[in-house]
Amino acid sequence: MDNTQERKKILFISSEMRPFLDGDTPLAEIARYLPQKIQEKDNEVRILVPRFGVINERRNRLHEVVRLSGMNITIDDNDNPLTIKVASIPNTKMQVYFLDNEDFFHRKFIYNDENEEFFADNDERTIFFCKGALETVKKLGWYPDIIHCQGWMTSLIPLYLKTIYKDEPVFSNAKVIYSVYENDFKEDLGQDFMRKASLNYIEDQELEPFSKADCTSMHLGGIMHADAVVRCDDIDSEVELKLSSSQKPILNHTNDQIADNYLNFYNSLLTEKE
Does the predicted TM-score (pTM) go above 0.90? Predict the structure, then answer.
């Protein structure tokens, strides 16, 4: 069978997604409709997102997946319990897995508190989500062909796949894609971000793009370690410069023929691998 016709396993890891989060950000919109369009083309899709406290569990009918829960994600020598919940998107056949932790996500705001102050622990929330997502896929025993990361909060995943998880069989054949959006925050993730994100295993040179710990750095790190990049927005000039000089395959997002465009892009990466 020709590679372009083969059923593929595609993992979407996104920091925001409608209809679970209110708001009309390009990220939440694309994260909602792209997986559905891909699945409708007879591909197997899994979706992982954070279980932010603003997500109403009763209204969205979230329930815990006991067989996937119970792991601990260690950050800075602290063990953080990971709970996995699942819900279906109304009027679709798609399920979404939510990564939850009482300390990190049980608050009624996403990235900023009621005074619009950036949460001081957004660094650890990001690390927890990125490592927790990969541990969840391992526990699922599901071997993705494509891992598509969307949003700055997923930017450590390409790094982790190329370092800590490079010898994991479940990821051995996967290509990782990072979607770049406009900068979402002007603050930074703190001076300890690189040290914490290293998880005591990763060399400084691999983490160097993340050194400023601001939103631009998150995008630069995601781009550096991904196999390919999708440009989704009017992006930061420094990020644009990095993309312009990059030799990586780049897809410019468009809503026209969205499934075909992305599937052709995925196929080109998988064909490269062969």
Answer: yes
